[in-house]
Design brief:
By secondary structure, the chain is an alpha+beta fold. 38% of the residues lie in helices and 29% in strands. A hairpin with a 4-residue loop joins strand 2 (106-117) and strand 3.
């Protein structure tokens, strides 16, 4: 059985492709380094092919392609079942652009600033529809122009799936909002 796999070059190609794919998933090379790492691997593969080491260069190219594929499919890792996308925790630093509504325990605002993810990636110039759920012992209220730095839970707005259903994604896109967020 082992000889069967040793004589099959396609099996080796698939193995190196998967090794590159899972290498990125496990090690998670930072965003700033991903393209220099892939470029370095490709340059090494080109140099090896010039030196007539074709099998090693092809395996290195497959390894680099696996890393690239893993990086490009990063957003597919957020699988969810149900009607609502997952809520992701992060930090927000910005200002209150507009005060929408204050009613009872909840207040709604439009915020603009930088969204910092848990892996310290920064999404600059992000606009949020922010819902603040006040607690009885510590009521908060913001005015336009106030600076905010908060740990929040945010998500991408939902898209309508049924006819005559409210399309949250189109509504927020029309008022130039990227994410919805809340904090208690």
């Amino acid at each position: 059985m082992l000889k069967l796999f040793q004589n099959a070059p396609a099996f080796r190609f698939i193995i190196f492709l998967f090794i590159g794919f899972f290498f990125q998933k496990i090690i998670s090379i930072p965003f700033d380094w991903i393209y220099p790492v892939i470029t370095t691997i490709v340059l090494i593969a080109v140099i090896l092919s010039i030196l007539k080491k074709f099998s090693i260069s092809v395996l290195l190219l497959l390894f680099a392609f696996g890393i690239f594929t893993s990086f490009r499919t990063y957003n597919l890792d957020f699988n969810y079942s149900g009607n609502f996308p997952p809520q992701i925790k992060g930090h927000f630093q910005g200002k209150v652009i507009n005060k929408l509504k204050v009613k009872g325990k909840t207040s709604r605002y439009i915020l603009e600033g930088d969204l910092i993810l848990n892996d310290f990636q920064k999404i600059p110039k992000t606009r949020l529809h922010f819902t603040l759920i006040n607690q009885q012992n510590l009521p908060l209220e913001f005015e336009e122009g106030n600076t905010i730095f908060a740990k929040i839970q945010y998500r991408i707005p939902n898209q309508a799936t049924l006819p005559n259903e409210f399309d949250e994604k189109s509504y927020y896109r029309s008022i130039d909002i990227h994410y919805t967020a809340f904090e208690r």
